[in-house]
Amino acid sequence: MRILLAHNRYRSVAPSGENRVVDREGEALTARGHEVIRFERFSDDIEGWPKAKKATLPARAVWSREAHRGLAAVLAAQRPDVVHLHNTFPLLSPAVLYACRDAGVPVVATLHNYKLACANGEFFRDGAVCHDCAGHLPARGVEHGCYRGSRVATVPVALATTVHRRAWRSLVSAYIFISASQRDLLRPVGLPAERSFVRHNLIPPHDRPQQERTATVVYAGRMDKAKGVRLLMAGWDDYLTRTAESESGPGQTGEALRLVIAGAGPLQGEVAAWASTRPSVELVGQLASDQCAELIAEARAVVLPSEWEETFGLVAVEAMA
Questions:
Q1: Residue 27 CB partners (closer than 8 Å, separation 6+)
Q2: Nearest residue to 100 (alpha-carbon basis) of 60, 63, 73
Q3: Could you report the per-residue pLDDT of 198-227, keeping only the tens digit for each?
Q4: Which of 29, 74, 176, 231 could be 305's S-S partner, Cβ–Cβ 3.0 to 4.6 Å?
């Protein structure tokens, strides 16, 4: 088949496993003999926009005329059998659904988060799980400024969801959820059950030999509240306290563990300041996929302190693999 992958890639400073999943699926489809065409936009490009163009971003998130025209031209020239749609925010916008409809090309959409029911896509607010907007107009999300902590920034996100709700229900031939729990939590959105399927994220096989374990615990992921980075820091401090108490008492103690943190995100500065006073903690920054796999393979354990309802714990499955 000729398959067009449509995806708005996330910013480099806020890495997402979704980019990795899209790349892996594209490679796997190509390996199976399919022809893969990419239609992508890059959120990193926004940083280089002039101020006047940046001011149009909220409107573009609701309807991107540029993305609509661009995809329409590609569909006319390439004539794919199907469009596999991933992330549309903010540069593709739901306008791409209408371009596919007008071209008569069916759409399969993989839903990687909770964006259709939650402005921040996480069902997470003020340090706790929140389902206030599921199945309702996202007024509470605007009230609380759930996207980037800003009411102004949340308005276009909520508007895009509300205005195009019917399109998401009617212009998609099949919906792929990456876990059954995600499907169930998004049920209030009203997507047709007969066109909804669960297919877990792809984990490629590896042929590396079994690594010798080192006394390390690894956290690999985005550094933000929902991912539980502050819970991780508190837990590690508790471990250090208990280790110190054990060493001061009678008997032998086991080998002390080190914590290795890989990733980037909004809490990076806070994590760096905390780690600088703890010799047992090492920050290695954002790693390439193969480097991260190597780090995980050598670790005693991988820790996942997520406080939001993970749609699919990609790092957990990579660790088990």
A1: none
A2: 73
A3: 999 988 777 777 778 999 999 999 999 999
A4: 231
pLDDT at 146: 96
Query: Which pLDDT score is estimated for 115?
Result: 96
Between the CA of residue 263 and those of 177, 232, 285, what are the distances in Å? 25, 14, 5
CB 293 within 8 A of CB 17: no
Indicate whether 116 pLDDT > 60.
Answer: yes
Tokens of 82: 């199907």
What local confidence, expressed as pLDDT, does residue 205 receive?
Answer: 76
Which candidate, 293, 112, 261, 122, places its Cα nearest to that of 200?
Answer: 112
For residue 170, give Cα distances in angstroms to 106, 192, 195, 218.
11, 9, 10, 43
Answer for the pair 21, 53: CB distance below 8 angstroms, yes or no: no
pLDDT confidence of residue 202:
86
Length of the chain measured in residues: 321
What global pTM score does this model have? 0.91
pLDDT in tens, 283-314: 999 998 889 989 999 999 999 999 999 999 99
- pLDDT(16) > 90: no
Instruction: Report residue 238 as tokens.
Output: 């508790």
For residue 198, give Cα distances in angstroms to 92, 97, 173, 179: 24, 21, 14, 6
Q: What is the largest CA-CA distance in the chain?
A: 76
